[in-house]
Amino acid sequence: MFQTWRLKLREAEEAYKAGDLAKAGRMLVDESLTHFLPGRKLAAKVTTQKAQRAINCIKSRDFDSAWGEIDQAISLSGETNTVLEAKRRVIDAAMLNISVLLRTGDASAALAAIEALEKRKVASAPLVTLKQVAQRIHSAANLAKHGKFAEAESQLEIAARLRPDFVEFEQGRADCRQRAEQFRNLTEQLHHAMAERSWSEVVQLADQLLQLAPESKLAKEARKQAWAKVGAKFVDSRQGPNKWMCQDELGEVNGERFLLWVDGVGGYLVSLASEVVIGQATPGNRVDIPILADISRRHAKIRRDGEGYTIEPLHVLRLNGKSIQTQAILSDGDEIELGSGVRFRFRRPHALSASARLDVISRHRTQPYADSILLMAESCVLGPRWQNHVVCPDWESDVVLYRQDDELYCRAMEAIEIDGELCDGRGRLSSNSHVAGSDFSMSLEELDRCTTQPLL
Fold first, then answer.
1. Residue-level pLDDT at 448
2. In a shared domain, residues 50 and 188
3. Which terminus of the chain is less hemmed in, N or C, by CB atoms within 10 Å?
4. How many other C-beta atoms can be found within 10 angstroms of the C-beta atom of residue 358?
5. Which pLDDT score, from 0 to 100, does residue 239 have?
6. Per residue in 417-438, pLDDT tens?
7. Are residues 263 and 382 in the same domain?
8. How far apart are CA 353 and CA 378, in angstroms?
9. Global pTM?
10. Can you say how many angstroms the Cα of residue 117 is from the centroid of all Cα atoms in its chain?
């Protein structure tokens, strides 16, 4: 009688010949076919192909996919010489990429890449040095935002000593010195204008300072004081047309999606639609949540119906580890897996809001990059409490984004500044608004409906 395992092995071989390495690998592991000599031989072939795919991913800097191939290869055959060589090449390429990111000043992306290597237990003196450099550059950028250019230059000097071959740091130091001089001159002029009660000049100088240092407390306070002195009007959000989802003075506005950048916290892809499609981030592919991963162009659909959410699989999908073929209800804490390895955590953190959040818990990224995806219903709450949609630990109180009559508003417990105008704690937002309070700052960035890129 023909053994069952031989039938399974034949199916795995057919998948291998068709180039479906993922299926062949799953069958070899799930059906325990590597217990047999023919299965081990096939596993060796699949492992070799997986290792080569990992190396090929390096060319496009798709390190998430490269590590995915490495992991699958290890699950098949362990850390063979072929796998170890591929792993070494992926690590070397990742280290080189980190160096490139640092030399171009993208410390946040470099730190994220370093964290990814550390999670994989990659430990080396060069990586430790790169992390120290990244931390110094990140600190310098934050200090410069607050107008502390001398301290920023000191951080860059330390970074330059750690990696003297990164000659770009010297230009960064020179830039800090130049901006420090400009900041000092403008600050002197600002103090003089305030002493003379030249409030219009105060506003102009404060704006120039904020261009150099967006988080300068001196400039922010001076501008608020100037507005108060000259009686600048407070915006009444109940007056004047400014539809969020229609044509206004800013031009055609796409009200379906936007990026929300919260200073010191992160970036969030916000969708206002009641139904969103998750799919692969490829040119011309119109999906609400584009993911840089090997998934289908339209892989899954999440729908908000009243107070609840459902998910509909359009291709291979697992919910809490179980494969589903039909629509299912989503609950707070559910884990969603698309294809082989793209994983999300579904959250409904706030009891008084129907909005939800999708946290990417695998190594994959959205395009454009965001820390999380917000599925916004009637409101989105930001603030220091753990149950908020966006947790902002350094804020004193909550700030709420909410929808009303097809428009988007912001509400806070204090006077806030929206697009350069002071509001009485509540104001209407446009598609690219900037909002600031005494201890927070955030910006909206409109996304093109037809692409995965922000509008310029």
1. 55
2. no
3. N
4. 23
5. 36
6. 999 888 888 999 988 899 999 8
7. yes
8. 7
9. 0.48
10. 18
